[in-house]
Model the fold of this input.
Amino acid sequence: MAPRAGVWLHRVVCLALLVCAAGRVVVVGDLHGDLPTARSILQAAKVVDEDGVWIAPAGTTLLQTGDIVDRGPDSHGIMDLFMDMKEQAERAGSTVVNLIGNHEWMNLSNDWSFVHPGEIEAFGGVAGRVLQWSEHGRYGAWVRNNPMIHAIGSTVFCHAGIMPQYAEFGIDVLNQKTFNTVRGAGDGLSDTIWSEYGPVWTRDIVWPAQEGHCANLEEALRKLSAAEGREFKRMVVGHSIQPGGKMSFLCNEKLVAIDVGVSVFYNGGYVTYLEVLNALDETAFSASQVSLPKRDEVEGVRVSRPRWDFNATRNTSGLTLTLPEHLPRGYTVAKGDLSVHWAAFAPVAPPKRRNNPIAAPGGAPRRPGTDHPPWPRVPILVGCLAACLLFRRGRMAGSFRGAPAAEMALLAVLLVFGYSAM
Done:
């Protein structure tokens, strides 16, 4: 009798654990090439063990909000880890979801401005990495199959935030537009979803919310609810780093900003993740940050490099790369119909950029790197000539003294100054 009672007690306990875990969602923010921290987070969340074996109960969802790549040297290692976990999770009755972030998009667009030199070496050089990030490569194919937006219950997840003008299209449409673009079949809307106000770039959800302005968020949730035919009550995003290693619960917890800079290559090392319990049951919804002691910082790992452009000779593909200066000056890529050679030219410094004092809609500053319109050349040159004419008139009237040579020198100085200011 006792053994039978023990068996039934074991079944009841197991069933209770499965029911409790069925709505558990573990959300991980931007990892930026820091594989040790990624492993520490996943082990702390009891998703995998020290050997990378999936140990989470059936019904668990692991969701990563994008920006696995860049800054650190182990982007490929983290992608390998998530690919392996996805296969294990499916066999265990669980789910792994990876979203596209702006840094994945940059790599798909051949913008390597933040690629760590160790990441290049891991692929045996530039050519190897280009091929692996192509649509037929291991990592390029995987990233191209990841969505931009994912929903669980009444919570929507994306990398940076969904502005109202995009929310009105709905999740499926935006994801399809994403797939169309990264697979080379985009249209007008697909182009705009990658703009500075798009779901992988915008700051105009988090930054205004930090100041207590929730209009963009609330309008986006309303429009998304209308488009999807069900109510969305909150948005969970990464991208915008929160200070002090603490996630932000904003606008009466309608917005959760989870990026705290966990990567040691971005002044981080925070072992932290968001845990959502009963995600499908709004009456018992609960979300909280789980943190462990910060990893020891690695001295000298944060590297800041300017953008550099290499002149490229295009044969068939029209492929171009934006590369940091640490990369070699000459290399060749060839596979199938892809054949591109970059000559050993010296890097060309990027054009001058000025801070843009113009605020973006919603009151938030524009994304760094956005240029303001160039100063008009004609008014500057006209002003210089007018100054010279006034000088000449004053000299003729006796107000100024000096030879014509001085007048010409002043003209030259004004013209040089005016041109350099443009």
Summary: Confidence is low (pLDDT under 50) at residues 6-21, 296-319, 325-377.
